[in-house]
Write a structure and sequence with these properties.
Blueprint: E1 3-9, H1 12-23, E2 28-31, E3 35-38, E4 51-57, E5 60-65, H2 70-80, E6 85-89, E7 96-97, H3 99-102
Antiparallel strand pairs: 1-5, 1-6, 2-3, 3-4, 4-5, 6-7
Helix pairs in contact: 1-2
Length: 107
């Protein structure tokens, strides 16, 4: 079962920086331009990918998480470098949650 979230960045340059960091990581499985597929190196799952990102525009990304992804959460937090991104479950602007929750990590 996968879960979908819309990530909204206040600063488009932060989003570009995060995308560059993810694309240059060892977790990258496939880059189809606007779609990026990542595998969590810690999980060693048999799935083709653990996380898929779909670039929507210059300030938002759709995030699909297939399983708990501690390693990818750490990669994302490192790429953010303290910057702010808002995360909305199923894209619902009234249902904001933390990235930690989106990556299925219990608080």
């Amino acid at each position: 079962m996968s879960y979908e979230y819309r990530l909204v960045f206040d600063d488009p340059s932060l989003m570009q920086s995060v995308v560059r960091a993810l694309k240059s990581s060892d977790s990258l499985v496939e880059d189809k331009g606007r779609e990026i597929f990542l595998k969590d190196q810690l999980l060693q799952s048999s799935a083709k990918y653990d996380v898929r990102l779909i670039l929507e525009n210059d300030s938002s990304i759709w995030l699909e998480v297939n399983s708990k992804a501690v390693g990818l959460y750490g990669l994302m937090m490192g790429a953010l470098e303290g910057g702010i991104v808002r995360c909305y479950e199923d894209g619902d602007l009234h249902d904001e949650m933390s990235l930690k929750e989106a990556f299925r990590i219990k608080a």
